[in-house]
Amino acid sequence: MKLIEREHPGEKRLLIGHSMGGAVILRTASSRYAGNFNGYLALSPFIAPNTPMDRPSQGGWTVVSVPRIVVLTILNRFGISALDHLTVLAMAVPENDNQRPRTYSHALLASANLQQDWQARLAAIRQPTRILIGAHDELFTASAYPVEIGKANTKIAVTILPDQGHMTMMFDEKALAAETDTAVDMLR
Questions:
Q1: How far is CA 148 from CA 27, 47, 175, in A?
Q2: How far is CA 160 from CA 45, 96, 101, in A?
Q3: 44 vs 187: CA distance, rounded Å
Q4: Which of 86, 166, 171, 174 is 20 to 30 A from 72, alpha carbon to alpha carbon?
């Protein structure tokens, strides 16, 4: 942050993330580091396991080892983290796709999402924050986002983009235009 401030003094900063990256930015927005950015834009964010926003097995895209997560979380509470490298989530990524991760370890998943107290974490967000999600998201139930996010924090605006899926949020021209317009609006 010091480098950014030195190189671009006074410029507004917006943190943007997609999917697990969206979870990371929401976690940051609810943390003591929230003041490092002027706003937060989460695109199709993962909120936490087993929320009303989750599709079972994320629509067939993922397999989550809930028993392993439970055991590792309990061990972590006793200060034991030696097994946090173990895989807890596997994704259906084509064999020839070397651009996307195939698995997440417990350490990555635990450090990225809002965890079990996700409502309290969202309620703690004070900086301007918006969520954009595609109406046809294959991993998450987009229609549940406005209701569930609104219960936690009425100041977080949720916009459902028609005709968009989880990954099209990253390359479809209409999605990118909506994201750009939202980002520009947030930086005004």
A1: 16, 10, 23
A2: 12, 31, 26
A3: 20
A4: 166
Note the pTM of the prediction, 2 decimals.
0.86
* Pairing of β 157-161 and β 14-18: unpaired
Strand ranges for the chain from DSSP E? 14-18, 39-43, 62-64, 87-91, 103-105, 129-134, 157-161
Which 3 state secondary structure label does DSSP give 159?
Answer: strand
3-state secondary structure 100-122: CCCEEEHHHHHHHCCCCCHHHHH
pLDDT tens, position by position, 94-127: 788 887 788 888 888 777 777 778 999 999 999 9
Residue with tokens 């990954």: 167
Helix/strand/coil for 136? coil
- The two structure tokens encoding residue 61: 């895209």
